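Work Package 4 report. The design task specified in the project plan requires that, given a folded chain encoded as structure tokens, an amino acid be chosen for each position. We show below one input record used in the internal validation round.
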């Protein structure tokens, strides 16, 4: 293998210095753009903002490495993207329907301590969702009155008061993995799929809510914040 060709090839060392200068200029332009856009920081980006960042990165990347790409045209692209971003966000503020199309709408994942089967959102994996719950000190669904997937990807949790906590589907990995189709011990069980709670004496039973026949022993602990 030709290591020199792999790492250096026909690199012009004078152009290497130019690459450093180009990179610093474009990186500074990106920072100025993000500050000008009004963003104080980045936690979760909307789909529209992700598209803006991708376009920004593409416009900034070529002038950093390519001699044939000048910096001024890239800055024109930046100004165009910024103007477009400002126009779209202004229009979204004025038109609620357009804002919903652009940013998306909140999705109810949990209502009254069980999964909302009508949410129609299949993009959020259950193990990822359970991880989010555990990070909020949630042990089971019965502690949660409402969970909403926000348009920016965050999840908002509203909790029951201690005296209102219900039996619920556990989200702890060891407990959740102990599913069964054949109940041998009487008690309250949570549907493995939808979280519906039913009292089962023993034997095989299908969930009245979703028709699944997998069950997990429900727990009724209070939330420790």
């Amino acid at each position: 293998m030709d290591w020199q060709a792999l790492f250096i090839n026909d690199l012009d060392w004078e152009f290497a210095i130019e690459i450093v200068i180009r990179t610093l200029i474009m990186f500074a332009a990106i920072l100025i753009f993000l500050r000008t856009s009004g963003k104080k920081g980045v936690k979760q980006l909307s789909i529209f903002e992700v598209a803006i960042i991708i376009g920004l990165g593409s416009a900034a990347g070529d002038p950093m490495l390519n001699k044939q790409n000048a910096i001024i045209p890239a800055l024109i692209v930046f100004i165009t993207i910024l103007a477009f971003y400002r126009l779209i966000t202004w229009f979204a503020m004025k038109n609620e329907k357009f804002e919903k199309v652009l940013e998306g709408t909140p999705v109810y994942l949990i209502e009254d301590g069980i999964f909302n089967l009508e949410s129609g959102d299949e993009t959020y994996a259950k193990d990822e969702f359970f991880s989010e719950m555990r990070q909020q000190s949630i042990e089971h669904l019965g502690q949660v009155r409402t969970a909403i997937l926000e348009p920016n990807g965050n999840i908002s949790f509203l909790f029951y008061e201690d005296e209102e906590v219900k039996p619920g589907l556990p989200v702890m990995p060891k407990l959740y993995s102990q599913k069964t189709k054949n109940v041998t011990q009487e008690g309250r069980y949570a549907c493995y799929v939808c979280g519906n709670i039913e009292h089962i004496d023993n034997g095989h039973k299908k969930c009245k809510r979703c028709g699944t026949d997998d069950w997990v022993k429900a727990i009724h602990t209070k939330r420790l914040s």
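DSSP finds seven helices and seven strands in the chain. Validation will be extended to a larger panel in the next phase.
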